[in-house]
Structures are given as structure tokens and as C-alpha cells.
């Protein structure tokens, strides 16, 4: 079929057939709908006819010869010319439509419910730190507080509670003393409290503090200068926590190299700075190791169905230190 109207000049209708057809760069369309649908093989670059386009489903590929349809694009089923085929029911914009076959084969994953575990606060660690800070402030602001809480070996023979009160006191003239001990208490204490529990941790701290005071008294020569020297500080108890942490890390298979490095530095400090009671450090460290090992053994036995002997072991450690102090004061006369 040919076009009957032939515009001339620059006003030529771009949809009409040109006078001569030589490798056209743009196909022409007839104004009348095509009655047939000639194939591309029958009319290669000859006189193809194009019908008036209608608007239906998009084809997106090579135009058909005859009555091609160019409709509004739908964003549902992808056309093969657009790339990889999607499963039936899927769209380019999201998951499959509800009720389609794809929605039954590949359901949309639902968000999982998150369980928030509430971590217990290190109440005992914070309480010990608060008591130490309050006592330290009282030493600076109230006269006589330092003398009331400090310990000397000669005083502990008749006032044994000073072994414990001195572990919550610090030097009122050296702020670095309380800062270091409280930092170490917070860094180590909360981990051990979470592992052993609040009651066992409180007992461990007190026993390590008593162990530090006991070691200082045992190593102080009766009648010598140390026998009348005042001692304050939580260093003995803190070193007990270091010892307990060593035991717990070994039990769970963790490396202890970093902790040994910290202990080596602290062991060298008394050699460089005078006035540090290394005896209390050593005593607290030994007691901390012993109590932590006994507690871990008691917990393991309890989990296996046996009796929990935690407080029996702690009581025996305390009794052993009391016996050693009685023997020391008996020998000192």
C-alpha cells in the first residue's frame, strides 16, 4: 500500500513514503491502518507498511510490521529485552504481588524479633568505689577521720577492725593514690563480679583486703618502724582482684600475658617510689588467687549436683588468717 498524498519541500510529512527509498534511516507510516501484517522478510527495506499505532500492552523490543501497539508502560512483568527474567509475580519495584505464584514460592522474609538481654549492674563494685571516695573526702574535710580508719600493726592487736577500715581509706595528700586504685577496681572488679556473682565478689574483696593487712602485720618486725607505721589503701584488695582474674582467665582458656605485664609494672613501682606497702600487695594477691580457685571449684561441684561449699572454703581462709595473726601477736608479746 502506498501513500496517496505527497507533500513537497521542507513541509514533507515525516510519516509519508519518500519518492525514492534508499536505506531509510527512519521508517514511514501510512495514514490509513494497514489491512495486512506483512513480515519483515517479505519487505526488507522495500515498502513496509505501518498501521496507526494503538495503545495496549508494550512490546519494548523490535517494532512489529503491520499493526504495532505502543501502550502505557506497566511496571510489572519485565520484558525479555530489559535483561534477566524475574520469576512470575515479581515486579521491578519490590516483592511479588500477594496471591501470585511467586509470593507462595518465595515469601518475603519478616524481621526477626530481637531479644534484649539486660545486663546486671556491678552494684558491689560501684558501692566499694563510692565508700572509698566518701572516706577519702572525710579524711580531707573532717579532722580525725584519717587517724580513726588507718591501721598500724600495734593497733590491730586490740582493734582488728582497722584491717578492714584501712582498706577503704587512702592518703589524703596524694590524689593519685585513690585515682589509681579506683581505676583498677572499676577495670577489674566489674568483670569478676559478673563472673562470680555479687555475694562471692564481695567476700573475695573483703578477704583480699584482710589478706593484705595480715601480710603487712606478719612481715613487720615487732617493735620496729613498720610496727608503728600507719597503712591505708585498697591496694591489697585490688591486687587480690588481679590474682582472682588470673585464675578465672586460665580456667576459661584466655591469655594472661597482658595481666602479667601489668602486675610486673606494679611490682616494680615500690622499688622506685618509697612509702608503698608491697607486703599488702603480695598478701592480697595470694589470697585473691586462693579464694578464686576455691570458689571456682565450689561452683563446679555445685553444677555437677554436689553441695555448694563456697562459704565453707571462704570461712576456712578467714580462719587461717585469724590464726596467723594470733600467732604473730603471741610471738610479739
UniProtKB/TrEMBL annotation:
Its EC number is 3.4.21.105. It is an enzyme of class 3 (hydrolase). It is found in: Membrane. Keywords: Hydrolase, Membrane, Protease, Transmembrane, Transmembrane helix. The keyword Transmembrane helix applies. Signal peptide: none annotated. Residues 95-113 have a biased composition (Low complexity). The chain crosses the membrane at residues 123-146, 166-189, 201-221, 227-247, 259-276, 311-331. GO terms for molecular function: peptidase activity. It holds the Pfam family Rhomboid. The keyword Protein transport does not apply. Its main location: membrane. InterPro entries: Peptidase_S54_rhomboid_dom, Rhomboid-like_sf, Rhomboid_protease_S54. Belongs to the peptidase S54 family. PANTHER family: PRESENILIN-ASSOCIATED RHOMBOID-LIKE PROTEIN, MITOCHONDRIAL, RHOMBOID PROTEASE. This is Rhomboid family intramembrane serine protease. It comes from Luteococcus sanguinis.
